[in-house]
Amino acid sequence: MSIGKEFEGKTVTDATIEACKELGVARDDLEFEVIQEEKSGVLGIGSRNAIIKIINIQVGSPNQVRTDNPSDLQKIEKVELVDTDGKQILSIFEKLVDHFVGEAETSVEINDRNILLKLNSEADLGFMIGKKGEMIKNLEFLLSRISSKQNGQSIYVSIDINSYREKRMEKLQERVRTLVEKVISINRPLSLNPMNSYERRICYLIIEENDQVTYKTKEYGNLKKITIFPKKIEM
Known about the structure:
Elements: E1 6-9, H1 12-23, E2 30-36, E3 50-57, H2 87-98, E4 105-111, E5 114-120, H3 126-129, H4 134-151, E6 156-161, H5 164-186, E7 190-191, H6 197-207, E8 213-220, E9 223-230
Helix pairs in contact: 5-6
C-alpha cells in the first residue's frame, strides 16, 4: 500500500518526481504533504533533503495498477490508448531532440501503459543522460505527464538513448546472476543496492530462475533493497 509512504529528494519537486515514477502516476493524481522542506545549508554543512508523505492517490482508471510481483502483471487488463501508435508523444520528443542534437534516429515501442522512446545518434549524448541518469529521469517525467494528459490516464514514458537503458539493464542482470551464484557458494544472504520498482522487477525475474535462492525486500528511503537468501536459511 502506497498511502503513507515517504519519498525523499533534493527538493520537494525532486521528491515528487520520484514518487510519481515509483508509483506510476501523474502529478495530478498525487496528494501529499511536505514532511520536511529542503535546506541548502552553508557550504553544504547543515543541508538536508526534502521529504514528502503520500496522503492519497487518485486512481483515474480501474486499470491503474503497479506491482513488484512479475506474476501479477498477467492479471492487469490491457489499456486502450488514445495515442495508439505513440506517434504523438514521439513527435514531441523529436522536437525536443532537434534543439540539442543534429542528425538522430528515433523510434517508439508501446506495451500497455508503457511507452519506450529510443534515440540513437553518433553525437555525444551524455548531457541528455546526465549524472546518474538524472536528465533522462526528468525528461521521462515530463513526457509521462504530457502523454498521461493526452490519453486521460496515467502513462509511463521511458527513454533509451544510444542503448543506455539496454546496456544498464544488461549490467544489472549480470550483477544479479553473479550475486546469486555467490549466495549459493557461501550459503549466506547478500544484498543489492537500493533500486526503483522497474529495476527490482528485472532482478526478481533473474532470481526466480534459480530454485536454490529466494529473496525479500526492505524499504530504503524512497527505494527498496533486495536481499537474496539461500533457501537453506530461514528469513
